[in-house]
Amino acid sequence: MSKLPAVSRRLLLGGALATTGALAAGVGSAPDAAAAVAAAPAPRRRPGQKSMVDVPYAVHRTVRVGVIGLGNRGAGMTTGWSVVPGCTVTAVCDVRADRAKRVADGLAAAGKPRPAEYGGSAESYTQMLRRDDIDLVYIATPWEFHYAQGKAALLAGKHVVVELPIATELDELWDLVDTSERTRRHLMLSENCSYGRNELAMLKMAHEGLFGDITNGHGGYLHDLRELLFSDTYYTDAWRRRWHTRSTASFYAMHGLAPIAAAMDVNRGDRMTTLRATATEPKGLADYRERFVPRNHPSWKETYVNGDLVTCLIETAKGRVIRAEHDVSSPRPYSRINSLAGSRGIFEDYAGVLSSGGGRIYVEPDHSGHSWRDFGSYRKEFDHWLWKKIGDDAANNGGHGGMDYVLQWRTVQLMRAGLVPDIDVYDSAAWCAPVPLSVMSLAAKGRPVQIPDFTRGAWVNLRTGLDSRATEMPPVV
Fold first, then answer.
1. Residue 300 phi/psi, 5° resolution?
2. Contact 171, 8 (CB under 8 A)
3. How does pLDDT run across 415-424, given as a tens digit for each residue?
4. For residue 156, which of 185, 177, 122 has the smallest C-alpha distance?
5. Among 128-137, 350-359, 361-370, which is the least confidently predicted range?
6. Residues 343/357, Cβ–Cβ less than 8 Å
């Protein structure tokens, strides 16, 4: 969207200290510098407001999708929704009306029903949400719009899938949790990497005890985006680069954090309790600009404050440790890290040969001699049922190696079969909490900050999630 909303000072460099009472009272004066900064208490549920844990979708004969945001991500995912059995795209919206028309034209040309078009203003999506032929809203706009649009969709009685992150501030995360509970509609982070083939195999191995007692994990988002960040066309209005001028947050570590959290049963028997953050100096974008960007480019008026590598060290109630990293400003090959370790072994992704899916493994008693082994045979043995069932379709219909389509197919299946979502609003809020919490910790010179319990105590109960049992897609009639 072209018009950027104001960004709260809580998410700006140093803003957390100015606006968070617990921090202002504790930093620099507390005798125990290692003590965690307290998070705001969980807001009370309103009368009649109830948990969405284990609440199934109502059965939908057909899932009718409305899309908000039709840039690079939104346009591609719209095509994906349109080819899932039992799913149809009924409406599309973008602040640029020509994008809505182009996407609608493309669906019609592919033989799909032509969706209604909305666009021309930043409020066009509110008109789309008034439709009664939308069951699920998919949001793929810039980060600063996710919270307001996600909440509006819930209030309109729709289920929601939101690209990363669902919100950028703690009070917004809590408000989405509460709005989901009040409206009895699900909101889910569009965490496609949780449906990656290696990630789901790792999850299955962990839950079947292959690694013994899980002790630690490492995940993140390491992706050299410098060329795209300085492109005049890729990120509309340079929205993503502008975040690097106004916030110190770990923007996008969820891609690596979420699969590790799922393998550790976070919100399903364990929970994340504290986070401490560190950051390197912001050197990468300025250096790239110096070498490759003309002096008349508007980026030369910018000052970058987001550290090149932001690392979050997260502890859980069961004493496990997760290291989550974010770096899009440095020259390096792509990696989500995706590493899990326990008392009997370890798996590391993005380290092996391509024929094995890029991973390497060492587990006892299978291995000895301090030498890594190929992951290929283990991925075959522990392949998740979703990939066994629709892997070929995913390869033909979805981006990012097929995991986009797996996420979309599974979401539609859950709604059509009336099942409980794999990823719920509590997972989504917890996985996105490092965005504002990293700002708070960095402002407090790396002190740990408490991570809220968005489940309000329900995390202690074991329940299924991404480790689902095989089920069928209802037939299309």
1. -70, -10
2. no
3. 999 999 999 9
4. 185
5. 350-359
6. no
CA distance 240 to 424: 26
Q: CA 145, CA 74: separation in Å to the nearest integer?
A: 14
Tokens of 474: 């209802």
Instruction: Give the mean pLDDT of 348-370.
Output: 87
**One-letter amino acid of 290:** E
Cβ neighbors of 309 (< 8 A, separation 6 or more) are 279, 280, 325, 326, 327, 330
Tokens standing for 182?
């009040």
Its pTM stands at: 0.93
**Can you tell me the mean pLDDT for 27-50?**
71
Please determine, for residue 9, whether its predicted confidence score (pLDDT) is greater than 60: no
* pLDDT score of 22 more than 50: no
Q: Which two tokens stand for residue 170?
A: 């703690």
User: Do 425 and 180 contact (CB within 8 A), yes or no?
Assistant: yes
| Token representation of residue 124 | 């066009």
For residue 172, pLDDT over 60 is answered with: yes
Contacts with 123 (C-beta within 8 Å, 6 or more apart), sequence order: none
Instruction: Convert 181-212 to b/e letters by CB count within 10 Å (16 or more is b).
Output: bbbebbbbbbbbbbbbbbbbbbbbbbbeebbe
**Of 16-20, 41-45, 313-317, which gets the smallest average pLDDT?**
16-20
**12: CB partners within 8 A, 6+ apart:** 246, 247, 439
Count of other CB atoms within 10 angstroms of residue 388 = 10
Q: How are beta strands 159-162 and 272-279 bridged, if at all?
A: unpaired
Q: Are 241 and 302 in contact (CB under 8 A)?
A: yes
Q: C-alpha angle with apex 337: 401 to 351, nearest 5 degrees? A: 80
Distance between CA atoms of residues 366 and 373, nearest Å = 10
